[in-house]
């Protein structure tokens, strides 16, 4: 057999060994990112008068390393639409997604909550380095008198058991914990 | 003696005057495809999109460069008709036309359907424009070289061929990567179809481009290797370096040069019959490694169906490659026969 062919067979065998076995083996040591999101919400008032607005601020971030995504999911069960909800300022880089009542909810995370029963805001960073701590400031003007609830939760990707916050509290339509904040409209 | 020298200089000047527009045409496509590849990486990394993002600027710059090259091919030069350039000029003209109309059409598509995925009618127009322009450029350069005593050299030809390679790869990506689902349309290929398509088409594309680059420069070592080297370089710059988790894979990725150099040696240094088919099989068998990292998405869909976050690419690739690489190596080698047959036929037509 031609010497070049013989040498080629040998070289290709080594090439396949390196690329098909050694390379994936080296890749398998890549550290899986295990991050956990957190947030702190603050509202300037506990109760407001009818037609009055209040600011709702969410300071968020992640622990454990850089994350492929940090997403805040904010639900407004007592609102009929986003008419009274305005983003006053945001450090999030991606365009937010507003799901009105009846909209199909298209998520970047596994979810069984398919049709929005109340206005839902998804706002996110892809990626979110560990040192990035985005702040979201909403200006909310409730339409009706009584209780005005805000449900907030955060997720970070890749998704693990730890990559969701809060770890307790009320449960939403996805059967996941949310932080519930209430403002009384008098 | 002096008159011979003067004649030589005149011939040299004439050669470059006529060949440069075709080189510029091809360079433009290299910029367009390189920018496009970087843009895909940015989409994977979910970097915020804007009209003036760096990859977009390179892409638009590439279109402008190609237009400049095409204008150059239209300039009146004496004895130009000797080179039989009607076909490459028409083909690149069609390519440039498609590149130009792709921009406003894509803008309209965005306006109608929001952010688009990889596979969209306007992207197909852009890819067809890139392909026609790069093929026009290659045919023009080869025909001019064959009627002259001069050569553009391995570097320039390697670059131009790599542009054609990326253009064809763009089509193959469109029908095999799950990047085409948006809020409005779902053009994602069915996962099994995508995996089968990738297994057949990527080796064909590789063998077609690389065997053609060797065949049209028959007996000259280096053209195939340089084309492969530019492909690897552009992939490193546009797909690996921008993604921090893939930077460590670059030394391994560089090893993909091995099958290209071997194929080049077999074609040009061995005296084996059917050397092009053996070389094609070597090239095709390496497709699963040459098309890293994007190929991860195609085979993940059919094997695991996991959500592939950018940081997860190395882990997911490492999980499936060990299992399926022997099969894919064999499939790649077989599929490459088609690419080699097309390359040999096309080469005969390029060289008239």
Index terms:
heterodimer, A: mainly beta, Immunoglobulin-like, 2 domains, eight-stranded mixed sheet, four-stranded antiparallel sheet, 1 helix, elongated, B: 352 residues, 13 helices, Membrane protein, putative (chain B), transmembrane (chain B)
Could you give the topology of this structure?
The complex is a heterodimer of chains A (186) and B (352).
Chain A: H1 3-27, E1 36-43, E2 47-48, E3 54-63, E4 69-75, E5 85-90, E6 97-99, E7 120-125, E8 135-140, E9 146-157, E10 164-165, E11 170-171, E12 177-185
Parallel strand pairs in A: 2-12
Antiparallel strand pairs in A: 1-3, 3-8, 4-7, 4-9, 5-8, 6-7, 9-10, 9-12, 11-12
Chain B: H1 2-44, H2 54-74, H3 86-113, H4 121-146, H5 154-174, H6 191-215, H7 223-240, H8 250-254, H9 257-268, H10 275-285, H11 287-290, H12 295-303, H13 313-350
Structural overview:
The complex is a heterodimer of chains A (about 190) and B (about 350). Chain A is built from one helix and twelve strands, in the order αββββββββββββ. Chain A is mainly beta and about 190 residues long. Chain A has two domains: about 1-30; about 35-185, Immunoglobulins (Immunoglobulin-like). In chain A, strands 2, 4, 6, 7, 9, 10, 11 and 12 form an eight-stranded mixed beta sheet that branches. Chain A has a four-stranded antiparallel beta sheet with strand order 1-3-8-5, with no helix packed on it. Chain A is elongated. The N and C termini of chain A lie far apart (about 95 Å). The relative contact order of chain A is 0.24. Chain B has two domains: about 15-150, no CATH class; about 190-350, no CATH class. In chain B, about 75% of the residues lie in helices and about 0% in strands. Chain B is built from 13 helices and no strands. In chain B, helix 1 (about 1-45) runs antiparallel to helix 4, helix 1 (about 1-45) packs parallel to helix 7 (about 225-240) and helix 5 packs antiparallel against helix 6 (about 190-215). At the A-B interface, helix 1 of A face helix 9, helix 10 and helix 13 of B.
